[in-house]
Amino acid sequence: MFDGYTTSEVMSIFAMQGFAGLSLFSVFVLMALGLAIIFGQMGVINMAHGEFMILGAYTTYLTSGFFQSYLPSLFGGYFFIAMILAFLVCAALGALVEWLMIRRLYHRPLDTLLATWGLSLIMQQAYRSIFGAREVGVELPEWMLGAFNVTDLVQLPINGLFVMIIALLIAGGLYLLMYRSGYGTKVRAVVQNRPMAEAVGINSAGIDRATFALGCGIAGVAGAAFTMIGSTGPSSGQAYIVDTFLIVVFGGAQSLIGTIVSAFGISQAQSTMEFFMGGSMAKVLTLLVVVGILMLRPEGLMALKVRR
Amino acid sequence: MNNSALSKWFVSREGVYYLLLALLLVVILPLVLDPFRLNMVGKYLTYAFVALGLVMCWGKAGILSLGQGVFFGLGGYCMAMFLKLEASSPENTAIQSTPGIPDFMDWNQLTELPWFWEPFHSFSFTLLAVIGVPVLLAFIIGFAMFTRRVGGVYFAIITQAIAAILTILIIGQQGFTGGINGITDLQTLNGWDIRTDEARTTLYFICVGMLFLCLFVARLVQNRKLGRILMAMNAQENRVRFSGYDVAAFKIFVFCLAAAFAGVGGAMFTLLVGFMSPSFIGIVASIEMVIFCALGGRLSILGAVYGALIVNAAKSGFSESFPELWPFAMGALFIGVVLAFPDGLAGLYRSYVMPLEDRLFRRDKDKGAPVAGTAASKPAAANENDDEPVIDNYSPEKS
């Protein structure tokens, strides 16, 4: 498989593909973190998570259009506004969905799966009616174009780096929120033992809604980041959903570190193999390995040990 | 069942439901529909096989598989491979650079038939594979997952991933599988042209016959102790386990049964439609199959047939006139069936139409019930009207 490449070329292929993998990793992490906190706390699988991400992407698209026409002088900084807007829009919709639908289904996790799938169909078709079936892209501000030349052979694009930094910042922020704040303590209490958490006076229904909204909000930020490295279409979200589920399950459902580790492993494996055997086989092989490991070790990489 | 018991069953309420369905499928629809529409109904019915499998697997035993399209597709591809080989005889494919192999292989510069295509020259092997391949895969998945006590949402996600893997694999390996176009241009089955209207009508009746066969197998499973254990497992898995039953074995069994039904459905699909492609396997197709089952009523064997018919007919109807509205309707259906009527049409029927029936046919019912009670042993009496069993202790709010 390495025939015809010199050692230094192989090394730079690995470095570049590794970096391409890191961009994929950033999107995966942002999506998977949102999914993981929802699934970890409530056991709910949100099939519409990809569509929430795309909602964030469309929010960014609209914001960039707004800045282009009305505030061209501030265009360089629109992304930060867009990110906040994407978070707010998605979190608000998430809270609404939780209130209308999800909270009635907490005792039937399989049914949530179907209901959120229905939601995803509706959202997809809504995007198609509003934004058209064609993919849209945002214009990047100038400072995000170009690339760092690390060596002659290795180039790292700035937008990819930027997205990665955002992913790391969000992951760090989420860690602080979960392990260093009052809200996080309550969430972890509910995850470990819901009846006891309720017994000591934690409003678990409120925590559920906040967590669902937070997860959807992070999906929105993922969407904003996604526009930096790819174009957005009505069904772009669906392409990521299976991978993201596997990442969450593979990492161990209630472990944020596990989610990040598995996102890293899966995205790196996929993008490195992609170069040598083509996209579809790389994906098949990665998914097969993950499914195989999950069959042998269903609790995932890092399982939270709680008494059930 | 001896002769008199059989005739008594036919006048029981459940027997009448089956007769009505048979009347609809065998007499009414063939009379009122032209061959093209009838063929479409046949296509919808092939999905009823899958929905029936889901009733057993998801409704009764509580195992939600989002990858039933995989088994449907495997059955369909097995049949398609046989038909394709028959269609690519050396005489038919003389213009190819390698005559005697399917056309898409020739386009992809393959010069000989891959090894896994070889056995599909034999019709008997194909018939075996239509059921055998899906069941084998279901057994492997089921064995790996259920003996490790993986279930619920995890199982659903894994089966969905398997659907994704198979689709990507088939699309990626164009030379071996026909890629995204699938296996097309199928012509004859053992020399019998399957594209004519007469052949399609015959195939429709074969499909209905197979469907009733599967319905009776499902009913048999449901009314035995086996079916009771499946239901018990769904409600209180640990109690069943502590009573000494091997829960994993029962789960593997019902998952394989569902896979077998889906495989048969897939093979009939290929015969009726004339091609097979990865679009009937993937994530979206697989999860749509769940809604056929959910709309009919996840606990109702006959409901599966009506669910598949109604959803697919609505889909064709909408797609012809308002294609952009269909996803909204489908989404609303998913949400509605879960939130508003979790027992589907069968549940609505039981709570609104059945009391009416009782009032109308009061005398019939009085006569019918004791007959069914005396004809069989005590447990069978409890099973009366078992097509739509009312399980009092079934509560979705299990932990």
Helix and strand sequence of chain A = HHHHEEHHHHHHH
Number of E strands of chain B: 2
Number of separate domains of chain B: 1
Order of helices and strands of chain B: HHHHHHHHEEHHHHHHHHHH
Q: What strand order characterises the main sheet of chain B?
A: 1-2
Helix content of chain B: over 70%
Largest sheet: number of strands, sense, barrel closure of chain A: 2 strands, antiparallel
Query: Strand fraction band of chain A?
Result: under 5%
Q: Quickly count the helices of chain B.
A: 18
Q: Can you tell me the overall shape of chain B?
A: globular
Largest sheet: spatial strand order of chain A: 1-2
Question: What fraction of residues of chain B sit in β-strands?
Answer: under 5%
Task: Report Rg of chain A.
Answer: 20 Å
* pLDDT averaged residue by residue of chain A: 84
Distance between termini of chain B? 39 Å
Give the helix level of chain A as a range of percent.
over 70%
Main pleated sheet of chain B:
2 strands, antiparallel
Rounded to an integer in angstroms, the radius of gyration calculated over CA atoms of chain B is: 22 Å
List the helices and strands and how they pair.
The complex is a heterodimer of chains A (about 300) and B (about 400).
Chain A: H1 7-42, H2 49-70, H3 78-100, H4 109-131, E1 147-149, E2 155-157, H5 158-180, H6 182-192, H7 194-199, H8 204-229, H9 236-251, H10 256-277, H11 279-296
Antiparallel strand pairs in A: 1-2
Helix pairs in contact in A: 1-5, 1-8, 1-9, 1-10, 2-3, 2-4, 2-8, 2-9, 3-8, 5-6, 5-8, 6-8, 9-10, 9-11, 10-11
Chain B: H1 3-11, H2 13-32, H3 35-60, H4 68-87, H5 103-107, H6 123-146, H7 152-172, H8 174-177, E1 188-189, E2 192-193, H9 197-223, H10 225-235, H11 237-242, H12 247-273, H13 283-296, H14 301-321, H15 326-339, H16 344-360, H17 362-375, H18 378-382
Antiparallel strand pairs in B: 1-2
Helix pairs in contact in B: 1-17, 2-9, 3-9, 3-12, 3-13, 3-14, 4-6, 4-12, 6-12, 9-10, 9-12, 10-12, 13-14
